[in-house]
Amino acid sequence: MRSVAVALIASAVAIAVAIAVVLSQAPPVVAGNDAVTNSTHINLLAGGVSSCQQVGTVPRGTSALRISVGAGAGPRVRVRVLSNGRAVTHGELAAGWGLAAAAVVPVTPLSRDVPDALVCTTLGPGQPPIRVAGSPRLGAAEGTSFDDLELRIEYLRPGSRSWWSLASSIVTRMGLGRAESGTWIPLLALLLMIAAGALAARSALEDLR
After folding, report:
1. pTM, 2 dp
2. Of 81, 116, 75, nearest in space to 96 by CA
3. E strand or H helix at 104, and its extent?
4. Are residues 118 and 75 part of one domain?
5. From CA 84, how far away is CA 138, in angstroms rounded?
6. pLDDT confidence bin for 176, thresholds 50/70/90
7. How many other C-beta atoms are found inside a 10 Å radius of the C-beta of residue 203?
């Protein structure tokens, strides 16, 4: 009985520490994009394809690229950023990243702006369909080829504010757009989750008596 109580307390402390560590980190922010709009969507029936496109300037500090590729299972995504034919950074998102509207691929952070950059994206095999979005290439015929589109690419870099500092604005936004709006709604949900966890732990201890 005592060992179970100690285990429950230790688990709660570990969860609290993990949450505190995550909230102390800064979420990424968008440093720029390639000015492409998602006006066209294509469903690819297979992966194993590559495409390169000129994107203008990739800003200093970029540590990830968010690319307009979505899928249910998530194929492996590799990217390379080239300048004058030389790779200045690269990265890979492992397969299985799940259901998402875009793929966020981490890359080695850039120490300087890269003007006239070329970004090459390679999709590995994946569960079809693989949904890609962007704008048709100039002069390209309409079709279902990965190379028919200029992809929407956003450049992400670490933000300067932690999740803790953003908590008040997040709570305010979560409370908007509902029949009973207000910041008390997410706070109530948090209190209910804490109460449910406490009741579950109490019930487990009582069953062991």
Report:
1. 0.71
2. 75
3. strand 103-106
4. yes
5. 22
6. low
7. 10
